[in-house]
């Protein structure tokens, strides 16, 4: 076996490790060309998945994750790719858009939905077997349905945990793979029979579970650029037994390296061997400054974000308001290979206003003219993508950063800000 297969060739600094990770995620440098629809699919394939979340204080998360990588693009392209069958929805890291060619990797989960915990209630489906069969028959005869097509009949109020019975059954049938999401309308799921949404699939195509587990490891390491063993299961939320990444190194399927200051090895996909060499030589220079969704792969694993970037991140939208430190829906600020702060923003689209409720720099990040210019550029690009030409700043810390930020965001002399 060659030295590179033993992994002894890769000795990375923490900065090089970050650069390799960002390069794998296509977050190393700003795009030079305007995004096209094919770039949306390519970005999802590169990440392996695109997590779905419905909070829309700014853009809904999947659209924002794509914007961070693609810049200005048409959000409708994501919806079109789903409707065209290039993507499907299922439980990966959480609910995700996934490349249709990976359907077989998730089919095992569909056939054992009880293993997915709260996402599937076997008791509900046993108790509602007749209703579930009738709902499936309705879809078969009348075509796709939305949860909104069913009037609430149980006398309960709506809400996140107050789904009507038909919605619970639709979701259970989706988790069990009997229904798929044919498309979305105003972000509402439209359910149809799996055989109509993905007619090319047959369970005879399903790979063995051992091959699926191995491919999840390989896909994760490739998506992350490099990975510690403890990071790997979280990406696809895979269950034990987990393949031994060292065994995959011995098989030539992974490479092994080290990061200065870390105990234990890191693993690198052979597809990224050249990138890893460039990172080790200092030839990968992160230049992108942008805002991240809380559900971006770069930060969704809180432990990995802390170990790789020194960024202690917690999404506080589920925290009581009085206990929040940074805000309801804070967006991490990625600047030239470091996570330097977080901003709690809200897009008031009707008013054309992008409100910065609070923005915080991380401890130890020094305010400089270049940093302020980079951050303001990212804020302006995000605001413009939301059709919000005005930006207002409510609070910023530290004080010197807030003062510089307000000055940079102010309209030029002689120009009056639009009301």
Topology of helices and strands:
Layout: H1 3-6, E1 10-12, H2 14-24, H3 37-47, E2 50-51, H4 61-70, H5 76-83, E3 87-91, E4 95-99, H6 103-111, H7 122-127, H8 129-142, H9 165-175, E5 179-185, E6 188-193, H10 194-197, H11 209-224, H12 232-236, H13 245-250, E7 255-259, E8 266-268, H14 273-280, E9 289-291, H15 302-309, E10 330-335, E11 338-348, E12 353-361, H16 369-385, E13 390-393, E14 396-397, H17 399-409
Parallel strand pairs: 1-7, 12-13, 12-14
Antiparallel strand pairs: 2-4, 3-4, 5-6, 7-8, 9-10, 10-11, 11-12
Helix pairs in contact: 2-14, 6-11, 16-17
Strand segment tally: 14
Described by the principal axes of the CA atoms, the overall outline is: globular
Question: Helical amount among residues, as a percent range?
Answer: 25-40%
What structural class do helix, strand and pairing data support? Answer: alpha+beta
- List unreliable stretches of 5+ residues: 1-7
Largest sheet: 6 strands, mixed
State mean pLDDT (0 to 100 scale): 92
Number of helices: 17
Beta-strand residue fraction: 15-25%
Distance between the termini: 68 Å
Rg over CA atoms, rounded to whole Å, is: 23 Å
Tell me about this structure.
The protein has helices at 3-6, 14-24, 37-47, 61-70, 76-83, 103-111, 122-127, 129-142, 165-175, 194-197, 209-224, 232-236, 245-250, 273-280, 302-309, 369-385, 399-409; strands at 10-12, 50-51, 87-91, 95-99, 179-185, 188-193, 255-259, 266-268, 289-291, 330-335, 338-348, 353-361, 390-393, 396-397. By secondary structure, it is an alpha+beta fold. Strand 11 (338-348) and strand 12 (353-361) form a beta hairpin. The longest helix is centred in the last third of the chain and has 17 residues, at 369-385. The N and C termini lie far apart (68 Å). The relative contact order is 0.13.
């Amino acid at each position: 076996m060659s030295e590179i297969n033993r992994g002894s060739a890769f000795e990375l600094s923490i900065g090089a490790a970050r650069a390799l990770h960002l390069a794998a995620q296509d977050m190393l440098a700003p795009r030079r060309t305007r995004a096209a629809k094919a770039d949306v699919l390519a970005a999802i394939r590169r990440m392996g998945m695109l997590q779905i979340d419905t909070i829309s204080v700014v853009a809904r998360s999947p659209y924002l994750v794509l914007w961070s990588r693609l810049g200005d693009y048409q959000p409708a392209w994501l919806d079109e790719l789903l409707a065209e069958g290039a993507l499907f929805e299922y439980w990966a890291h959480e609910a995700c858009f996934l490349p249709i060619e990976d359907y077989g990797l998730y089919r095992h989960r569909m056939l054992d939905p009880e293993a997915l915990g709260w996402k599937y209630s076997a008791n509900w489906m046993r108790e509602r077997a007749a209703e579930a069969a009738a709902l499936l028959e309705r879809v078969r005869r009348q075509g796709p349905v939305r949860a909104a097509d069913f009037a609430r009949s149980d006398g309960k109020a709506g809400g996140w945990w107050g789904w009507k019975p038909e919605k619970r059954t639709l979701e259970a049938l989706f988790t069990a793979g009997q229904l798929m999401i044919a498309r979305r309308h105003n972000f509402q799921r439209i359910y149809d029979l799996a055989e109509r949404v993905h007619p090319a699939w047959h369970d005879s195509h399903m790979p063995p579970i051992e091959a699926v587990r191995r491919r999840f490891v390989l896909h994760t390491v490739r998506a992350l650029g490099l990975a510690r063993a403890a990071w790997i299961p979280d990406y696809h939320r895979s269950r034990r037994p987990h393949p031994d990444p060292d065994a995959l190194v011995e098989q030539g399927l992974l490479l092994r390296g080290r990061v200065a200051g870390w105990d234990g090895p890191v693993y690198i996909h052979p597809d990224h061997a050249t990138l890893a060499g460039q990172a080790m030589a200092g030839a990968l220079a992160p230049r992108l400054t942008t805002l991240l969704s809380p559900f971006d792969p770069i930060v969704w694993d809180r432990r990995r974000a802390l170990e790789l970037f020194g960024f202690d991140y917690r999404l506080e939208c589920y925290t009581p308001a009085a206990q929040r430190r940074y805000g309801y829906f804070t967006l991490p600020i990625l600047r030239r290979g470091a996570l330097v702060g977080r901003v709690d923003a809200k897009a008031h689209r009707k008013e054309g206003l992008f409100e910065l409720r609070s923005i915080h720099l991380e401890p130890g990040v020094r305010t400089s003219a270049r940093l302020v210019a980079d951050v303001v550029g990212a804020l302006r690009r995000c605001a413009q993508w939301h059709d919000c030409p005005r930006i207002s700043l409510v609070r910023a810390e530290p004080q010197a950063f807030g003062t510089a930020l307000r000055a940079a965001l102010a309209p030029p002399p002689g120009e009056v800000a639009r009301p």
